[in-house]
Design brief:
Length: 274
């Protein structure tokens, strides 16, 4: 990380930590409250951004994480609500979706929601993480159902595809973690992630929502192995890569531009004594 980008990521880390501390249960928020604009004595309701997914979302609040950077981008204008669950596949996600989202609101409570599943669904069925495997046909149906449900709660939805898998990196991580107990067998392979990534793009296009093809973007970058800390999850460099690709997609929607969102409270310079 060079000196020019370090301050951004320090700020992003702080913003991410604050977002986690401030987040409350999604389903308990009422977007139709009469005090939504923050009448005196009532808590102001901020524009919301939901990030929903597996460990790739959960770990988006690590140092330099993409979720933290997203909160930093919209700081003072919108709250990012973290809903990342390590080890989850689309089957698990569907089982708790109603509890997470609550009943459909009269109008969408979220400005935008990201949906990022598939890395676990694509795990090989007959290997160590086979219990999280979901066949691709079911994955496609599940993801489509998740997207349709989230669309009722968010003005915009962005689907992210599973990333590339670095087999050598996965095996090296296995040895580092388990030592002599390492199996030496891959529980995930890149070709499967490619298939599930294509399915995710298809779901997004059919549903008419935005998408970030993380897999293809990584495949087009010769540095892609540097983006992965264990062959699957992202290094700070990889986190930044994901955030940059997401930011490019968000930039295509005028009402998601940072300047399009008013500050929720006045800038300090407007409060200084004259």
């Amino acid at each position: 990380m060079d000196a020019a980008t370090r301050p951004l990521w320090i700020a992003a880390g702080v913003a991410g930590a604050l977002a986690v501390l401030q987040a409350i249960t999604w389903s308990h928020r009422d977007p139709n409250r009469s005090d939504a604009q923050g009448s005196r004595g009532a808590r102001r309701e901020w524009p919301e951004i939901l990030v929903f997914g597996d460990s790739l979302t959960e770990r988006g609040y690590e140092e330099g994480g993409w979720c933290a950077a997203l909160q930093n981008m919209y700081v003072g204008r919108a709250h990012v609500f973290p809903a990342g669950f390590g080890g989850y596949n689309t089957r698990f996600a569907l089982s708790m979706l109603a509890d997470l989202l609550g009943p459909p609101p009269v109008s969408p409570r979220a400005l935008v929601a990201t949906v990022w599943f598939g890395a676990n669904d694509a795990a090989l069925q007959d290997k160590g993480h086979g219990w999280v495997h979901v066949p691709i046909d079911e994955y496609t149906r599940n993801l489509a159902e998740i997207v349709q449900a989230v669309k009722r709660h968010a003005t915009h939805v962005v689907v992210l595809t599973p990333p590339r898998i670095d087999g050598e990196g996965r095996l090296a991580f296995q040895v580092a973690k388990y030592g002599a107990g390492a199996t030496g067998e891959l529980e995930r392979i890149d070709s499967e992630n490619r298939r599930y990534a294509a399915a995710a793009v298809g779901v997004a296009e059919t549903a008419g929502v935005l998408h970030v093809d993380v897999y293809s973007a990584m495949a087009a970058d010769p540095r892609w192995r540097e983006m992965l800390v264990d062959g699957l999850h992202f290094t700070p460099f990889g986190q930044r890569f994901v955030f940059d690709r997401l930011r490019e997609v968000l930039a295509t929607v005028p009402d998601l531009a940072v300047d399009a969102l008013p500050r929720q409270f006045r800038h300090c310079t407007e409060l200084k004594r004259k």
